[in-house]
Amino acid sequence: MEFATPLPIVILGAGVAGLSAASALVQGGQASVIFDKGRGVGGRVATRRVSLPDGTQLQFDHGAQFATAKGAGFAAVLGALQTAGLAAQWQTGGDTGGDTGGGRSQVIGAPAMSSLARGIAQAAGLQIVQNAAAKSVRQEGALWCIGFADGSSVQAERVILTVPAPQLAGLLGPDHDAVRAAASVQVQPCLTLMAAARAPAPFTAARDNAQDLAWIAQDNSKSGRAGNGLTTWVAQTSLPFSLQHLEKSSDEICALMLPLLCRRLGLAANDIVFSAAHRWRYARADVPLGVAFLHPTAGLYIGGDWCLGPRIEAAWDSGAAIAAAILALG
């Protein structure tokens, strides 16, 4: 990576908080560069695409399942994405499979959840460097130096960190003021199963936090999802199950979750044509920080959904608040 440094603003993390901050900065006339360790944008607003041996193409929203908006700001974002054809409504009410939240209408990406993040990034023309895993963030006089796993580094006048709270110590050091400030945050894991079956769907979505599979959704019931003759499912585990099996391999997790899903759906093992599991180690901020972001020292801003709560909108609001604070400086 080669940049004319120092860069004005570097953002680590291309999840919703990072995209929100960068988008608002662009609107305010300030440029930034986003670095992300992954191959795509959106963080847990994610979609897994699968090609079966016979050429059948499948996809699964294996992270965040939908978005809702309580505030006008994020509602406007979702509205613009729907107008652009990158989001749609997903109605899960009326099913017999369990409590889905009172039949409320949720917003999903179209044709995939990842479309939400890609749409935000494209609309703002954001500069994003992918496959760039940050290893350290340290202050060097009036500047910040960000070191990457490949041995490269960049300098910046300001840095915005939007990584999960438990990862701050690895970047900043365990004794940093920000690490101590975020010590009260509790971010919990979640395990996800993706499966495709040759069988009809008994329901669209079901939530029961008392069950090992706390959430089950027929993924191809969402707008734009083609099951190609198969019924695709995403199941996510309860917190106790997630904590108990977090360190198992993906194959082991799949072997544990798949029989639970088959039992819940009334499927035989030979009805399943594809299955895989994914571990989200930092999935849900059950005890958030309680403020929109941290600003422990000049030039350093830290945010994410873990600041405000386990919702996509919380990540958006945190990033927007960081951008507003920077723009207020002129």
Describe the overall structure.
This protein has 330 residues and is of the alpha+beta class. It has one domain (7-327): FAD/NAD(P)-binding domain, CATH 3.50.50. The protein is 27% helix and 32% strand. It contains nine helices and 17 strands. Strands 1, 2, 7, 8, 9, 10, 16 and 17 form an eight-stranded mixed beta sheet that branches. Strands 12-13-14-11-15 form a five-stranded antiparallel beta sheet. A two-stranded antiparallel sheet has the order 3-4. Residues 94-103 have low confidence and may be disordered.
The mean pLDDT is 94
Number of helices: 9
Distance between the termini: 29 Å
Please give the CATH architecture: 3-Layer(bba) Sandwich
β content, as a range? 25-35%
Number of domains: 1
Number of strands: 17
Please compute the radius of gyration using only Cα atoms: 20 Å
| Main β-sheet description | 8 strands, mixed
Residue share in helix: 25-40%
- How are helices and strands ordered from N to C? EHEEEHEEHEEEEHHEEEEHHEEEHH
Morphology: globular
CATH 4th-level superfamily: FAD/NAD(P)-binding domain
CATH class group: Alpha Beta
* Low-confidence parts: 94-103
Please supply descriptive tags for the structure shown above.
17 strands; FAD/NAD(P)-binding domain; 9 helices; 27% helix; alpha+beta; single chain; 330 residues; 32% strand; five-stranded antiparallel sheet
